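Input.
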Amino acid sequence: MPVNIQWDNADKTIIRFEFVDPWTWKEFYGAIRESEPMHNEVDHMVFWLYDINQMRKVPPNSLGGGKQVTNLRYENTCHDHVIVGANSIIRTLGNTFNRVYSRLYDMNIHFAESLEEGRAKAHEFLEKAEAERQSRSG
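Output.
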């Protein structure tokens, strides 16, 4: 499968999406939909970590494709996302997405060189998101 999903940790706070060439936006959206039961089994925020270390090409319409992801998030999906292993083209696309869409769709893309760095960033963003969630709920 071109886009694999799995829990990245025993606490079930990080879902790792692993991309393997070739993949399509439709396959990515399908993987997001497949993650719904994972979101439903926990009552805390969940972070999406994208491992693209095995990816060499980006499907067409990357900005539009990324924008569609904002419509597929679940209530307990963290609004910050980390891409691991991004080359300069992916970083440029992600930074462009942030400039164009981040405020409009309340979603931010960040980058990490390794899974370890990505996990560390995920934990920071999860703490922030969980605190915001707690303050909203009273």
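The first strand starts at residue 3 and ends at 7.
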